[in-house]
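The methods section describes the discrete structure representation at length, but only in general terms. Each protein is reduced to its one-letter sequence and a matching series of backbone shape codes. I believe one specimen quoted in the main text would settle the matter. An entry of this sort, consisting of the sequence and the corresponding backbone structure tokens, reads as follows.
***
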Amino acid sequence: MKKLILASAMLLTAIGVYAQGTVTFVNNAATVVTLGGAPVQAGTTFSINLYYAVDSATAPADSAFAAIGNPVNFLTPGRFNGGIRTTPATTQPGQAAWFQARAWETSFGNSYETAVAAGAIRVGQSEKFKLTVGSPTGTPTPLTSAGGFTGLVIVPEPSVIALSVLGLAGLLVLRRRRSN
């Protein structure tokens, strides 16, 4: 019996020392990720990941954020479900931390940083938001309840815009020829 009590005390101490908070990395219809006003297409063209920074009085610099968990693809247009993410031991259950979602075009790399370094134009990030994390044994805190979480607006490539302008110019030239 003494061994069981001693083992239980050691286990509870270990859990307390290494306690980590949890969040559910998923969006809802109010936070759909968009590209040029339309939801990002489902599939493997784009990935999104959750980034974490320790709590501070003001929003940390972009370089202070680190990815937690693996990136996920979009299951349906503009919607993703990255499951439960665990924060580092620096943020225990009930404590606050800063978060940000970052999305990128996967043809430029398997991470947001790689895609930006490779010159990807179709990248985006959410606003930075502070969230109190949940317990690993209880219900994780959903990101969709965070006040600052918004859908990402990803800017289309300039080549798409240039082709659109050229197409419109061509239509105007054809219209002018027909009216003469």
Remarks:
- Residues 158-179 form the longest helix (22 residues).
- The chain is about 25% helix and 30% strand.
